């Protein structure tokens, strides 16, 4: 596959001749990648397969947990704990290095969450996660009726507590990927169904506000053609988001710079490697990677 250059600016971020390499295959639908720098490995989910796996250059693919409650998005917090979005339990959980498992969120106003999908952490320990309905459909979760009448985005304060809804109930059709700008002063949240990204200003206490459109037209929201799902920001503030044909790259000013083409529909992305400049791309049945000229935006677990 090739790098589809919409702007010469993309050449500053990735070599136009860079090749997307398949490093593993044979899965059902890969998602939730997160790089462990100390161990030199990538964790990723396979929701329909109900399994969590690890990939490393030395060992290849190993299976870590089956069943996995059809886990999806994962992230480390600043203390090295792993946060996992679970479709089967409609929960966000925390797995400590010593094996202790804690439920951080499973309900809102007395009703079960839909199916936490993607999760990020702020440098002060605040947690944010999206809650679309994808974990209540066959294959990706357990078919069951939603208790909530909307698909929201939530925040758990740094000191803990119940999840707080941080967007209007009708603001998103299916919220999915989310990420911060490098200075954490703004947050991006995408909407899979509406094929767009919104941007928010983040107050000192971590609360997002002043939501407004950032970029629209990432395909048409049809899953089979590729959709906005996983999303990350590089050290220069460019947005890398899944979409039709691969990974779309969008400048902080909202200019579409191009597409890193991938031969399968992409579920999510994460930077890794010793210098955080290798983009790992879980895509349907396979795991791919490609080197970039930029590194990941600094994150609490780096």
Helix and strand element order: EEEEEEEEEEEEEEEEEEEEEEEEEEE
Compute the CA-based radius of gyration: 17 Å
Mean pLDDT: 96
Query: How many distinct helices?
Result: 0
CATH class: Mainly Beta
**Separation, N- and C-terminal Cα atoms:** 30 Å
Main sheet specs: 5 strands, antiparallel
Q: What overall form do the CA principal axes indicate? A: globular
Account of the 3D structure:
This protein has 302 residues and is mainly beta. It has one domain (3-291): Neuraminidase (6 Propeller), CATH 2.120.10. It has strands spanning 3-5, 21-25, 30-36, 41-46, 51-56, 60-65, 71-76, 82-86, 91-95, 101-105, 107-108, 111-112, 119-121, 127-131, 152-156, 164-165, 175-180, 186-191, 196-202, 208-216, 231-233, 239-243, 246-250, 256-261, 270-272, 278-283, 286-291. It has a five-stranded antiparallel sheet with strand order 1-24-23-22-21, with no helix packed on it. Strand 25 (270-272) and strand 26 (278-283) form a beta hairpin. The radius of gyration is 17 Å and the shape is globular. The protein starts with a strand and ends in an 11-residue tail after the last strand. The relative contact order is 0.18.
Keywords, please?
mainly beta, 302 residues, Neuraminidase, globular, five-stranded antiparallel sheet
Q: What would you say about this model in short?
A:
The chain contains no helices and 27 strands. The protein is mostly beta strands and 302 residues long.
């Amino acid at each position: 596959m090739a790098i589809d250059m919409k702007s010469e600016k993309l050449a500053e971020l990735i070599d136009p001749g860079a090749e997307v390499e398949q490093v593993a295959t044979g899965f059902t639908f890969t998602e939730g990648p997160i790089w462990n720098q100390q161990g030199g490995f990538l964790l990723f989910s396979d929701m329909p397969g109900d399994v969590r796996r690890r990939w490393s250059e030395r060992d290849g693919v190993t299976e870590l947990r089956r069943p996995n409650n059809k886990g999806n998005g994962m992230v480390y917090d600043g203390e090295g704990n792993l946060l996992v979005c679970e479709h089967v339990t409609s929960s966000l959980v925390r797995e400590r290095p010593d094996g202790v498992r804690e439920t951080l969120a499973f309900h809102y106003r007395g009703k079960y969450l839909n199916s936490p999908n993607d999760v990020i952490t702020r440098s002060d320990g605040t947690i944010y996660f999206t809650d679309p309905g994808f974990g209540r459909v066959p294959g990706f979760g357990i078919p069951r009726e939603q208790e909530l009448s909307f698909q929201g985005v939530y925040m758990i304060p740094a000191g803990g507590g119940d999840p707080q809804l941080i967007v209007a109930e009708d603001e998103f059709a299916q919220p999915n990927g989310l990420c911060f700008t490098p200075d954490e002063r703004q947050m991006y949240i995408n909407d899979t169904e509406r094929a767009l990204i919104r941007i928010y200003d983040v107050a000192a206490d971590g609360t997002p506000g002043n939501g407004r459109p950032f970029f629209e037209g990432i395909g048409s929201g049809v899953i089979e053609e590729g959709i906005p799902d996983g999303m990350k920001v590089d050290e220069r503030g460019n947005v890398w988001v899944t979409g039709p044909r691969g990974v779309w790259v969008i400048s902080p000013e909202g200019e579409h710079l191009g597409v890193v083409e991938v031969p399968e529909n992409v579920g999510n992305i994460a930077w890794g490697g010793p210098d955080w400049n290798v983009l790992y791309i879980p895509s349907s049945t396979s795991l791919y990677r490609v080197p970039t000229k930029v590194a990941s935006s600094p994150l609490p677990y780096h």
